[in-house]
Amino acid sequence: MIRLLFLLLLFASSCKNLDQLALYDIEIKNTEGIDGFTSTEIFTTGGSDEVWGMKGKDEFCNPFSFSSFDASIDYTLIKNPKQKERVESSFEKVDRKYNLPTVKVKDRKRTPKNSIHLKTNKNPACEWIGMGIGWDGWQGKDMSRIMEKSAIELMVRVEKGSIASLPIVFILEDYSENQCYATASYLGIEGGRVDQSWTRVVVPLQTFSYLKNKIDLTNVKQLLLQCYDATDVYLDNIQIVKYSHPYKRLEQNLTVYDSVSPINIFSNSLDGAWGIEGGSCKNFTLKTKKNNNYISVKTDSTKCDWLDFGISWNNWLYTDISKTIKDFSLQFDIQENNFKPFVISLEDYSGKKLSYTYVKNSSSSSDWKNVSIPFYKFPIRKSKIDLTKIKQIHFKFTYGTDLSIDNIQLTKN
Question: Which of 35, 243, 313, 403 could form a disulfide with 151 if both were Cys (CB 3.0 to 4.6 A apart)?
Fold first, then answer.
């Protein structure tokens, strides 16, 4: 009897230890990664079968290749030719000749797989231009707990010039081939522009359309990158990080239906805009005269190469003007000191633009004048823009422009 009691106590004690061990394992698991989600590394380096581009008959639509560029290296350090001369002059030149035997090279040198290069001219014959990454060994990944508190972070650079937007749609796909989408907005690009230095870009998971496009977030298969316009960018260090998204979700119930005229885009303040007062670049500034703010445009090539700005008059919510656009005109006041034609565009959330080049039809004057452009003059059908998801109005100038703009609004014809 005593022996039986001893065995029962021993068994109970061991069960208690097992319970404690199981709870301990759960606590450890939940503190790893992001709330227990550990598949955070999407791409750093390498060329396993997790990374793919189109092959065979569709290869001409493939924008993907590997690159030797590495996000851990700043390639903008040696820009000055004199600095380059000093580096080269530090090597001693030796004038000697050697008779070396011919060596037959059997293996072709391959490009180091340090980063991803996406390059395409957006061939109209291609229905889909993109690539995919089935990260973490193609296993089904449960992202359901992290969509409201995380983001896809990546480093991006270009080889020349600079870009203010990333023409890529980010797509999460589950194992039933259901998909949800997001794009990298201006707000997610650190500094608002990508150039030859590696730039941090953040795409909040909360901005993906997973509520509208039903996807099994407990069984995510891969991340697809689709190029929706001409593209030439390098991507590296793609990962999922903790992130707090400060803006409202862009869902259909948060769409603003603008139909009552006038619709104010800018009069005295800017609630949602980019490119104006852009850090050290002062090509576009807010100035005040008689207690009224206006936008000053002075594009000086010696100071910076910032030539455009955008305004989201509904503070980055979707704006639907599909039923009223032909009844609207774009109006603004302008004061010209040195006028050059500029392009005005409406842009949707997929990056498509509806553009019009404004060329003045009157003599130069230093006085303010009002301009009215009916939207039926814009190429609405050719643009293929989604008028139910307008993102912003975009102004693009050329160097040497000197003018001021005020009272931008949409009015009924």
Answer: 243
For residue 249, the tally of other CB atoms under 10 A from its CB is 15
Cα–Cα distance for residue pair 413/387, rounded to 1 Å: 18
Phi, psi (deg, nearest 5) at residue 327: -95, -5
Look up residue 217 and give its two tokens: 């977030």
97 contacts: CB under 8 Å, gap ≥ 6: none
Asked whether the CA dihedral 6, 9, 12, 16 is positive or negative, the reply is negative
pLDDT interval class at 188 (50, 70, 90): confident
* Fold of the domain built from segment(s) 253-412: Jelly Rolls (2.60.120)
Query: 145: which DSSP letter?
Result: T
Residue 88's CB: how many other CB atoms inside 10 A?
9
Peptide bond into 63 cis (omega under 30): no
Region 41-73+110-242: CATH code: 2.60.120.430
Query: Per residue in 129-161, pLDDT tens?
Result: 999 999 999 999 999 999 989 999 999 999 988
In the chain, CATH 2.60.120.430 covers 41-73+110-242, 253-412
Coarse DSSP helix, strand, coil percentages of the chain, rounded to the nearest 5 percent: 15, 35, 50
Residue 117 makes CB contacts below 8 A (sequence gap 6+) with 64, 65, 66, 67, 69, 233, 234, 235
Query: E-assigned strands of 61-123?
Result: 64-67, 115-120
With a CB cutoff of 8 Å and minimum separation 6, the contacts of 151 are 202, 203, 204, 205, 240, 241, 243, 245
Is this prediction's pTM over 0.70?
no
Calpha distance 39→32 (Å, rounded): 10
How far is Cα 142 from Cα 136, in angstroms, rounded to an integer?
12
- Going from the C-alpha of 5 to that of each of 2, 16, 290, the distances in angstroms are 5, 17, 94
Whose tokens are 């903008």? That residue is: 76
What distance in Å separates the CA atoms of residue 378 and residue 397, rounded to the nearest whole number? 18
Residue range 277-289, pLDDT digits in tens: 766 678 899 999 8
